[in-house]
DNA sequence: CACACGTGGGC
DNA sequence: TGCCCAAGTGT
């Protein structure tokens, strides 16, 4: 099995909040383009974002490059080998540090991710709210003595496998399961109430006009701010309004010739926002917009939102 | 501590 | 549709 820390690191970061099936092609492509820590440290941001386009949580790849630079400059190009040292790197928190330390270097630490929280909350009936950061210490203390001292990496991966197979969030243990006799919550019928998790984020509705402005075969784009949501990505110019109904009149006030291109909104969900976007064509050419041909645009990193807007525009034509 | 930060899939 | 889930970290 591949235990190369650079490889484990990339896969663990990609797998944060992301399904295995989604990650595989990204992983192969990333490793081919940037095979070493040094290559990652020296890569252009546009190359990084292009390799990550569509994966989401784009700060992950920016932090990976920061960490690669840290490894080259502060660690002489040698990958840190303990969970404690790994956690000093950008984008590496307690979970990823433990995963790399146990898998690549054999350190005996539990890699506490969503799966491990769920598996042990059920097996041991741990009532702590996993949405509370303070609960991590309690789980860590309970699980540490259980980690296989000889094969900690295999232990961590096995627990995660258990969490994605027999002990998925909505899967109940069957009485013939070999795990039934270890599973306290199964024995008293409370399994699906674990893990205890309080947090619920609501998605705030947002309304935008996406401006379609064309001149000599090129369309208008804007680069998003360098911090915040979809930082530095290129999208059609976006104007925000308070409601869906306010969009068309609002755009018309600035651009009297505005033409509404979409009847129903292009919708896009983020973790905490729900966007509804109307495509609006205008004749005016604004200096603040950057006009790019399709060829020039295609080499830039694109978000899934922008791909949806492009697809909707193409359907109009 | 609470919240920002993407995307895709299941029901 | 709306809500939950999926290999978290930074601020």
TrEMBL record:
PROSITE patterns named in the record: ENDONUCLEASE_III_2
Any single GO BP term: base-excision repair
GO terms for MF: 4 iron, 4 sulfur cluster binding; 8-oxo-7,8-dihydroguanine DNA N-glycosylase activity; adenine/guanine mispair binding; metal ion binding; oxidized purine DNA binding; purine-specific mismatch base pair DNA N-glycosylase activity
Residue stretches making up the HhH-GPD domain: 14-165
Entry's transmembrane regions: none
The protein's enzyme class: hydrolase
Cofactor note: Binds 1 [4Fe-4S] cluster.
Organism domain of life: Bacteria
SUPFAM superfamilies: DNA-glycosylase, Nudix
Family: Belongs to the Nth/MutY family.
Name assigned to this protein: Adenine DNA glycosylase
């Amino acid at each position: 099995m591949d235990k190369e820390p650079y490889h484990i690191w990339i896969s663990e970061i990609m797998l944060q909040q992301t399904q295995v099936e989604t990650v595989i092609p990204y992983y192969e492509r990333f490793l081919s383009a940037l095979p070493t820590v040094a290559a990652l440290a020296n890569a252009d941001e546009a190359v990084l974002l292009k390799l990550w386009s569509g994966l989401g949580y784009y700060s992950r790849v920016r932090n990976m490059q920061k960490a690669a630079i840290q490894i080259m400059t502060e660690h002489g190009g040698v990958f840190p080998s303990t969970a404690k040292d790994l956690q000093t790197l950008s984008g590496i928190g307690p979970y990823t540090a433990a995963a790399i330390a146990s898998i690549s270097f054999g350190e005996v630490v539990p890699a506490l991710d969503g799966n491990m929280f769920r598996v042990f909350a059920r097996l041991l009936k741990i009532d702590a709210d996993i949405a509370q950061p303070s609960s991590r210490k309690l789980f860590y203390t309970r699980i540490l003595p259980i980690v296989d001292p000889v094969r900690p990496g295999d232990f961590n991966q096995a627990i995660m496998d258990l969490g994605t197979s027999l002990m998925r969030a909505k899967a109940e243990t069957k009485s013939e399961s070999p795990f039934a006799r270890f599973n306290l919550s199964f024995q008293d019928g409370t399994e699906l109430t674990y893990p205890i998790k309080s947090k619920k984020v609501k998605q705030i509705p947002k309304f935008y006009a996406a401006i379609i402005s064309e001149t000599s075969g090129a369309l208008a784009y804007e680069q998003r701010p360098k911090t915040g949501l979809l930082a530095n990505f290129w999208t059609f110019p976006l104007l925000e309004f308070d409601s869906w109904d306010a969009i068309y009149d609002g755009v018309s006030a600035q651009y009297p010739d505005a033409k509404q291109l979409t009847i129903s909104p292009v919708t896009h969900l983020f973790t905490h926002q729900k966007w509804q976007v109307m495509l609006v064509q205008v004749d005016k050419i604004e200096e603040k917009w950057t006009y790019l041909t399709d060829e020039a645009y295609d080499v830039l990193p694109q978000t899934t939102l922008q791909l949806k807007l492009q697809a909707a525009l193409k359907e109009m034509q």
